[in-house]
């Protein structure tokens, strides 16, 4: 072993140097060179830092630097996140997205252009004017539709979601508020009153008939029986007299 190489290293180093830091790493750790001022120091990490990707070899695991425009990468030729000012597309970092794609400033990726989508129109509403459906001849009716898919930055914008058109209705007078209910209530009261009147009349009729019947029965009980009228022929027949 070289005199400058130490076996009692810290921080995951298998071998190290007082001047160069780690020279080799313990199993499963990645070796990476960090620049400090004018010199580079070797360190051993469980995963590669941002801007590096890991490669495993039989004798050592190393962290290699990504391309200059790439913040994180899977391999040197496949970036997973770009640095500021670049947009990710198919593992590459581009300053401008290809035709048919647009730059997404939120994810910093090139994405497909999304156009607006709407639902079908609803049926036309009743013909109205100033919130009423009566008391006029010409009014307006409207219909609506909903936005199903909002567009992306370069997508086709959404069309109008409401439409209005003129309409003509047969003129009719507006029923005063509460009048319909009042009329129904009055009709109901009148009907109940008529029914009650008929019921009272029927009760009076039954009571009168019952009273007349009882009166006749009482009269029959109190009046004496009439004697049978004599036969006129018998009264007029001559009687036997002694001469």
Automatic annotation (TrEMBL):
Activator of the canonical Wnt signaling pathway by acting as a ligand for LGR4-6 receptors, which acts as a key regulator of angiogenesis. Upon binding to LGR4-6 (LGR4, LGR5 or LGR6), LGR4-6 associate with phosphorylated LRP6 and frizzled receptors that are activated by extracellular Wnt receptors, triggering the canonical Wnt signaling pathway to increase expression of target genes. Also regulates the canonical Wnt/beta-catenin-dependent pathway and non-canonical Wnt signaling by acting as an inhibitor of ZNRF3, an important regulator of the Wnt signaling pathway. Its main location: secreted. GO terms for biological process: positive regulation of non-canonical Wnt signaling pathway; Wnt signaling pathway. Belongs to the R-spondin family. The keyword Ion transport does not apply. Residues 116-170 form the Spondin-like TSP1 domain. The keyword Membrane does not apply. SUPFAM superfamilies: Growth factor receptor domain (SSF57184), TSP-1 type 1 repeat (SSF82895). Keywords: Disulfide bond, Glycoprotein, Heparin-binding, Repeat, Secreted, Sensory transduction, Signal, Wnt signaling pathway. This is R-spondin-3. One of its GO terms (molecular function) is heparin binding. Residues 175-219 have a biased composition (Basic and acidic residues). It is found in: Secreted. Residues 11-110 form the R-spondin Fu-CRD domain. It comes from Donacobius atricapilla. Interacts with the extracellular domain of FZD8 and LRP6. It however does not form a ternary complex with FZD8 and LRP6. Interacts with WNT1. Binds heparin. Interacts with LGR4, LGR5 and LGR6. GO terms for cellular component: extracellular region. Residues 174-243 are annotated as: Disordered.
């Amino acid at each position: 072993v070289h005199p400058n190489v130490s076996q009692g290293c810290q921080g995951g180093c298998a071998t190290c140097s007082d001047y160069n830091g780690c020279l080799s790493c313990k199993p499963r750790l990645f070796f990476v060179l960090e620049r400090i001022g004018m010199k580079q120091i070797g360190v051993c990490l469980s995963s590669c830092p941002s801007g590096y990707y890991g490669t495993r070899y039989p004798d050592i695991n190393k962290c290699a630097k990504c391309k200059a425009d790439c913040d994180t990468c899977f391999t040197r030729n496949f970036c997973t996140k770009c640095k500021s000012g670049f947009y990710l597309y198919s593992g590459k970092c581009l300053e401008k997205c290809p035709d048919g794609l647009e730059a997404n400033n939120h994810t910093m990726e090139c994405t497909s252009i999304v156009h607006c989508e709407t639902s079908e129109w609803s049926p036309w509403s009743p013909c109205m004017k100033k919130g009423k459906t009566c008391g006029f001849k010409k009014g307006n009716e409207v219909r609506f539709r909903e936005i199903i898919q909002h567009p992306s930055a370069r997508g086709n914008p959404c069309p109008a979601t409401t439409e209005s058109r003129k309409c003509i209705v047969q003129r009719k007078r507006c029923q005063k508020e509460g009048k319909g209910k009042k009329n129904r209530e009055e009709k109901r009261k009148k009907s109940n009153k008529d029914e009650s009147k008929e019921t009272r009349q029927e009760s009076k009729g039954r009571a009168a008939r019952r009273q007349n019947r009882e009166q006749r029965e009482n009269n029959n009980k109190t009046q004496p029986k009439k004697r049978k009228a004599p036969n006129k022929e018998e009264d007029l027949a001559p009687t036997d007299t002694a001469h």
